[in-house]
C-alpha cells in the first residue's frame, strides 16, 4: 500500500470532519478539527504546522558516509525511530464509525509495536476508552503509553489500576485537556492541577510519568518540581486555546531551561521526517504525531500504520544523511535554520 492509496481509502470512511488531506495542516478543518473540534477559530492548529515549515534544514554532505541509525532509548526501551503515535479517544464519534476504541487501539498499538515504536493511547468520559487502551497495551507486551485525562484524584486512581495491570513502560497525563469543552463542569471534576496535586498523581502512578501539555519554561520547571520524568511540549494540537504560540516557537527555550534534567517530547503540527529532524535539532528527545496515525488506521488498518511509519522514518533517515548526522546524538542545533 502506498501513502496515496492510504489517503484515498481513508477519505471513504473518515466521517464528517476529517478530510484526510495530503498534508494535515488544519486549513481545511478550522474549528471543526476532529477530536472533537477546536475552541475559537482553530488558528493555533494552522500555526503549529506553519511554524515547523519556517524552520529549514542545513544540507551538509561533506561527512563520513556511514549507515544512519534512528534508534532512540527511552525509559529502558529501545525504539526504532524517535517518534510515537499520539493519543486519541472516542474515534467512532470524531472520525467515523468504521472503528470503535477497542478495534482502533487493537490495530494501532500492535502495529506500532511491531514496527518498533510505541503508541500513546487516549482516555475519555466513557470508561471503556481507557479499558480498550490498556487491554491493547497489555496484548502488545506493555509497549504503549496510556494517557489519562486530568480527572480528580479518586478517578485517576481508578484509571491507574488499569494502567498498572497492562504492564505499560510509562504513563502520561495530558494536562492541557483541562481546556477541552467536554471536560467543563464534569462530575467528578476535571481540570487544571497544582504542582502539589501533580506530584501526588505522579507518585500514585509508580511509573516514569510524562506530563503532556507544557508550553512555557515556567510550566516545564513546575513539571520537573512535581517529579515528572518527561514532558510533552504541546498545545493539544491547537484545539484548546486560540492565539497560543506554536510548539516550534517555544521548544528551544524549554529544552535549554530543562537542560537534560527531564526527557522532552514535542507534538502538534509535525508531519514529516524532516519536521522530526528539526524538533530533535532544537533539543527534543522525541516526537509525537497524532491525527495522521488516525488517517493511517482508517485508510489501511495495520498495513496503513506500517506504510505511514516507514514513510516518515525514511524521510528522517534521509534528512539525517543529507545533513551529516549518522545517529540521533549527532543531530545538533547548527543543522537547522530558523527563519
Automatic annotation (TrEMBL):
Domain FMN hydroxy acid dehydrogenase: 37-339
Names of required cofactors: FMN
Keywords: Flavoprotein, FMN, Oxidoreductase
Pfam families to which the protein is assigned, alphabetical: FMN_dh (PF01070)
Residues where FMN binds: 212, 234, 236, 267-271
Binding site for glyoxylate: 239
Oxidoreductase listed as a keyword: yes
Superkingdom of the source species: Bacteria
Active site: 236
Alphabetized GO MF terms: FMN binding; oxidoreductase activity
Catalytic activity: (S)-lactate + O2 = pyruvate + H2O2
Family: Belongs to the FMN-dependent alpha-hydroxy acid dehydrogenase family.
Name of this protein: L-lactate oxidase
Amino acid at each position: 500500500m502506498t501513502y496515496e492509496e492510504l489517503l484515498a481509502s481513508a477519505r471513504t470512511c473518515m466521517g464528517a470532519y476529517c478530510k484526510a488531506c495530503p498534508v494535515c495542516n488544519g486549513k481545511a478543518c478550522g474549528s471543526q478539527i476532529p477530536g472533537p473540534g477546536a475552541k475559537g477559530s482553530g488558528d493555533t492548529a494552522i500555526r503549529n504546522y506553519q511554524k515547523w515549515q519556517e524552520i529549514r534544514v542545513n544540507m551538509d554532505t561533506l561527512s563520513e558516509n556511514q549507515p544512519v541509525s534512528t534508534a532512540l532509548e527511552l525509559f529502558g526501551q529501545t525504539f526504532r525511530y524517535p517518534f510515537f503515535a499520539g493519543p486519541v479517544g472516542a474515534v467512532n464519534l470524531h472520525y467515523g464509525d468504521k472503528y470503535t476504541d477497542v478495534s482502533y487501539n487493537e490495530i494501532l498499538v500492535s502495529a506500532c509495536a511491531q514496527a518498533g515504536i510505541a503508541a500513546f493511547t487516549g482516555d475519555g468520559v466513557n470508561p471503556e476508552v481507557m479499558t480498550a487502551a490498556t487491554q491493547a497495551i497489555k496484548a502488545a507486551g506493555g509497549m504503549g503509553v496510556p494517557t489519562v485525562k486530568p480527572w480528580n484524584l479518586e478517578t485517576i486512581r481508578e484509571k491507574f489500576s488499569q494502567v498498572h495491570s497492562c504492564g505499560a513502560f510509562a504513563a502520561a497525563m495530558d494536562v492541557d485537556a483541562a481546556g477541552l469543552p467536554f471536560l467543563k463542569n464534569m462530575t467528578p471534576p476535571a481540570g487544571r492541577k497544582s504542582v502539589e496535586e501533580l506530584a501526588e498523581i505522579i507518585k500514585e502512578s509508580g511509573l516514569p510519568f510524562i506530563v503532556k501539555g507544557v508550553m512555557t519554561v515556567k510550566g516545564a520547571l513546575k513539571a520537573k518540581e512535581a517529579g515528572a520524568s518527561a514532558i510533552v511540549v504541546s498545545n493539544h494540537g491547537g484545539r484548546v486555546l486560540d492565539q497560543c504560540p506554536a510548539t516550534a516557537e517555544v521548544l528551544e527555550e524549554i529544552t535549554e531551561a530543562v537542560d537534560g534534567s527531564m526527557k522532552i517530547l514535542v507534538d502538534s503540527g509535525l508531519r514529516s521526517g524532516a519536521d522530526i529532524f528539526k524538533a530533535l535539532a532544537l533539543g527534543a528527545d522525541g516526537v509525537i504525531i497524532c491525527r495522521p496515525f488516525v488517517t493511517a488506521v482508517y485508510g489501511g488498518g495495520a498495513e496503513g500504520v506500517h506504510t505511514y511509519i516507514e514513510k516518515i522514518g525514511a524521510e528522517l533517515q534521509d534528512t539525517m544523511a543529507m545533513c551529516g548526522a549518522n545517529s540521533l546524538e549527532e543531530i545538533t542545533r547548527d543543522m537547522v535554520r530558523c527563519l
